[in-house]
Amino acid sequence: MIDGRKKSAEERRSFILNWLKESTEPLTGQMIAEKTNVSRQVIVQDISLLKAKDEPIMATSQGYIFFNDQQPTYPHKRIIACQHTPQQTLDELLIMVDNGVHVRDVIVEHPIYGELIASLMLKNRREVNQFIDKMDKTNASYLSDLTEGVHLHTLEAETTEQLDEVSDALEKAGFLLSEQNSSR
């Protein structure tokens, strides 16, 4: 319950939207469900309805976030192609965040659906570990399982040097996809 009484669906969605706008951290569906005294599935539906009204809400591995113009943006972006096993995902992501890079998403090319993009929004070891723990606990498959480990990441950084360092480290680890290792 919010404010001691049960809210209508529209009031609840308004409350959720305002909470997301004010929050500096992602809000999980479970957190929102507990605060509004409804099931997590109702929250998933509420978020879908808010997104259908063009509210810039993004579902990430840490929870829901509201994208607004005040959020920090990184001046440099790069899309990289990688290939590795699911067991190597932790190592790949740690290389990225340990070099000060923000891992925005993962992208795969599905033969039927085309480009599939999942928001990651990982910027430090804690978030990477939470993501891996969630994958393990839910026994979910990585998107790259659909493409024999081939996937893209959108990376963001303060400097191009950080992006270059990440590319070099990923290549050294054997994760960066290049012409010579594309036939793995």
Topology:
Layout: H1 9-22, H2 29-36, H3 40-52, E1 57-60, E2 63-66, E3 76-83, H4 89-98, E4 102-110, E5 114-122, H5 125-138, E6 150-157, H6 160-173
Antiparallel strand pairs: 1-2, 3-6, 4-5, 4-6
How many β-strands, per DSSP?
6
Helix content: 25-40%
Question: What's the average pLDDT?
Answer: 88
Biggest sheet features: 4 strands, antiparallel
CATH topology heading of the largest domain: Histidine-containing Protein, Chain: A
* Spatial sequence of strands, sheet with the most strands: 3-6-4-5
Q: Please tally the helical runs, counting DSSP H or I stretches of 4 or more residues.
A: 6
What features would you describe in this structure?
This protein has six helices and six strands, in the order H-H-H-E-E-E-H-E-E-H-E-H. With 184 residues, it is of the alpha+beta class. Strands 3-6-4-5 form a four-stranded antiparallel beta sheet, with helices on one face. Strands 1-2 form a two-stranded antiparallel sheet. Helix 2 (29-36) crosses helix 3 (40-52).
